[in-house]
Amino acid sequence: MKLVLKFSGKNIDPHKSAFLKPVVELWQKGTKLAFVHGGGPQISKFIEKMGKKPSFVQGLRVTDQEDMDLTEMVLSGLLNKALVGMLSQYGVAACGISGRDANLFIAKKHIINRENQLIDIGRVGDINQVNTQLIETLWNNKILPVVSPISSDGNGKSLNVNADWAAAQLAIALRVEKLLLFTDVPGVLSDPSKPDSLIEILSVNDVPLLIQKGIVTGGMIPKLQMIETVLRGGVEEVFIAEGASLKFVDQLFKGKSIPGTRIIR
């Protein structure tokens, strides 16, 4: 089985490796796994240490060149290598890479169009090309890729790319069976004010209806639109859940229900 697993920065503790045990078990069972990670809270923390205030437009971080340098340092340096180190504690041969390595991710600059007004948010990108050779080379040599979403602009410079979208584009390019998103939300809720209103299973055809009827709102809308893109791109299933659900992930492959939402084709 091939799969892409994305883990949000909110759920990463660089000093505790126990949360990675399910990842290790999947890998040791022979799963071809690419592990993509975010790092939003950690980036914000370093930006604040510099006396600046993090700024977001439509959920995307405004990233000037100074912030881009810091973002790359945190994602591709601090967190990426911390994860590699933690995996090595379990005997896993892991290799930390970013989208810049071997042109894994080529992106174009993202410009926001809000009410017919173009907004430039800096060094932020959308991936338009994925070169999977590096991932496949690592897999063929039994090395687990740990992927930072920092991407290349095709001219030798970095672009900051949302980790969910990086994982999505990688899942499509690798033609994996499943994309697992462990993030800061419990899944898709029928009522965002009620954590117990979790929708456990959806079809890709349900996604536009949920948006049209206003059942999902805010930040969940772009997530579901991204998931719809993934499923229509050939991936069989997307699972979205909070980071704590990772410990149950083995049950997911046994057909059992775990906290989160499964979206299928």
From TrEMBL:
UniProt pathway annotation: Amino-acid biosynthesis; L-arginine biosynthesis; N(2)-acetyl-L-ornithine from L-glutamate: step 2/4
SUPFAM superfamilies from the UniProt entry: Carbamate kinase-like (SSF53633)
Residue span, Aspartate/glutamate/uridylate kinase domain: 1-241
Any one Gene Ontology cellular component term annotated for this protein: cytoplasm
GO MF annotation: an example: ATP binding
Record site feature (Transition state stabilizer), residues: 6, 223
Chief localization: cytoplasm
Catalysed reactions, semicolon-separated: N-acetyl-L-glutamate + ATP = N-acetyl-L-glutamyl 5-phosphate + ADP
One Pfam match: AA_kinase
Sequence intervals crossing the membrane: none
Keyword Lipoprotein appears in the UniProt entry: no
Keywords assigned: Amino-acid biosynthesis, Arginine biosynthesis, ATP-binding, Cytoplasm, Kinase, Nucleotide-binding, Transferase
Function: Catalyzes the ATP-dependent phosphorylation of N-acetyl-L-glutamate.
NCBIfam families the UniProt entry points to: argB
Family note: Belongs to the acetylglutamate kinase family. ArgB subfamily.
Protein name: Acetylglutamate kinase
Protein's organism: Atribacter laminatus
